Amino acid sequence: MVFHANMLPFFIITGIIGGAYLGFVFRQSNRSLINGMMLGGAAGLVGPWLFMTPLRSCTFETERTNTDFLLGLFFFFFGAALVIWLVQYISLFFHPDIKMRPSLIGKQDSRGVFRSNFLVPFLLLLPTLIILALFLYYPAYETFRLATFRYRLGAPRTPFKCVDNFTELLTADYGEIMIITLTLSALIVIFALIISLAIAYLAYQPVKGASIYRTLLIWPYAISPPVAGIIFFVMFDPVAGVIDHLTTTFLNTGIPAWSESPNFARFIIVAASVWKVLGYNILFYIAGLQTIPKDLIEAAAIDGANGWQRFRNVVIPLLSPITFFLIITNLTYAFFETYGTIDYLTRGGPTGATTTAIYNIMITAKQDKWLGRAAAQSVVLFVIVIGITVWQFRTSGRQVNYGA
């Protein structure tokens, strides 16, 4: 890491904050104040160093713009906060009072089988942790490092660009892409959950041949997103598609060409994506419906609740753990796995109406061959998804009912 003189005050600030915070935490938990201050101070210095190393501290160069400087400060303090939190969490495993140590598998009445040493679970997890480090954490770090270079496929040189790939995203066009991404993702998740829950509830009813049509309802999940895009392309083709034929026959009007109608193009993308993920959601909802105690529904019926009231006040709350899980997985699908559907259906058109963040990343990397810019966009998308996921855990996660 290159050290600049104007970085010294910020290192002092993070060191003092880290020392004061962990010292206070250690003092409150009856541990050594000095040890807490030392660990916190070290974490407050190491965190910014880890984040500034791939950036070569370039944002603190005198010729950099205010935007670069502020972005560098964000990485600086975010690195400090992240490492301080990690040190605080890891230190809990070394707490002298075993009751204060966090459980690896959540709250439980018994201490489990690892009574000899709390390091045994970590040793057993070591092979998995090594795999995660090699195939997840290291590639993520390399993506962040690549985002600091002007890297293009076939180019003989890859000059260092500092945070220029990130600051170039602060434009109206990229802001519009993120709005489209958030809008389409929200629509996909909402409609996918509502429709799949309704179908699963109907499929769960005791009728003849239930196992057959339950299996048929799940099969769309086995289809890849590009194939789903091809199917809907054939169905909604404005010239020879079956939907156009049906609307012309029964309604005397054809469907609009999505190459000319941005709203209709977005509708097709949402419909194809929802259809693709329905089987996955139905599978989990049917499994969840099978775990609902029938005596609760019967008790609600005896109390005078009609079918809708039983569904709303009994079934939906008891399915909240599965719904919460599906919200997270469907969000991940909507953000990262819709590229194939969009590419085969609309190719981001018309006029960028269906250009989402992941589609723009792929176009930047594959078509324009700007891997550095694509890496910066992927880092931004990753941070946004992580932020939304954390927000979901902080808000919706508290409303999940795990008991009958």
Main pleated-sheet profile: none
N-end to C-end Cα span: 55 Å
> Rg, please?
26 Å
How many separate structural domains? Answer: 3
Can you lay out the helices and strands and say which pair or pack?
Elements lengths: L7 H21 L4 H23 L10 H27 L26 H28 L17 H4 L4 H32 L6 H9 L6 H11 L6 H10 L10 H28 L4 H9 L4 H12 L1 H17 L2 H7 L11 H11 L3 H25 L9
Helix pairs in contact: 1-2, 1-3, 2-3, 4-16, 6-10, 6-13, 8-10, 8-14, 10-13, 11-12, 13-16, 15-16
Explain this structure.
By secondary structure, the chain is mainly α. The chain has three domains: 1-102, no CATH class; 114-146, no CATH class; 172-399, Orthogonal Bundle (MetI-like fold), CATH 1.10.3720.10. Helix content is 68%, strand content 0%. It has 16 helices and no strands. It has helices spanning 8-28, 33-55, 66-92, 119-146, 164-167, 172-203, 210-218, 225-235, 242-251, 262-289, 294-302, 307-318, 320-336, 339-345, 357-367, 371-395. The termini are far apart. The model has no long low-confidence stretch (mean pLDDT 86).
